[in-house]
Queue: 2 jobs
Job 1
Amino acid sequence: MPKQKTHKGAAKRMKVTGSGKIKHRGAWRGHNRHKKSAKRWRRVSHDGVLSGKDAKRAARLLGR
């Protein structure tokens, strides 16, 4: 039976932490930072953690 390949698009966007959680980068961070208020920037500046079915699907894409 062939090996399952890692989905490279998902691998570039998500990272598995040491405890097995899947971190991802939030949206609205790419450019045009000066348009966004400091309050809005603080809200989008941290990484998110996937949970539930999203985490399960992402784990399958990452070959876990």
Job 2
Amino acid sequence: MPNNQRPVVIVMIEDDGGHARLIEKNVRRAGVNNEIRHFVDGTSALAFLQSSEASAAGPLLILLDLNLPDMTGIDILGVIKKHERLKRAPVVVLTTTDDKVEIQRCYDLGCNVYITKPVDYDTFATAIRQLGLFISVMQVPDA
């Protein structure tokens, strides 16, 4: 890894505190120690993502819940993928929706991975652990 390569910052946009803790715990368990910035709504997440603080942070990986209190994850994904600096950031959608149309919309808008949150805790934990392993080997382009 070149010295100038900055560590990836994980931006988690998830309004459910229990899910957020589960995601963080399993990402850590997979050996990923990157900084995780947690936002509970789309407004604050987009404010951060479009800020100079985010552009100084280095490459970003975005974990995005679709069902947020103030806007949909689809709306956020649309903004991210139209944004000059953010459009190359990998986006992992985590949601309880397994609607095929919604899934296709996410891929059409440019999400990289779509994970349905099963009600079953162990299945969800396994999916997040696999996500953690994926993050640990993924090369995220610097904008």
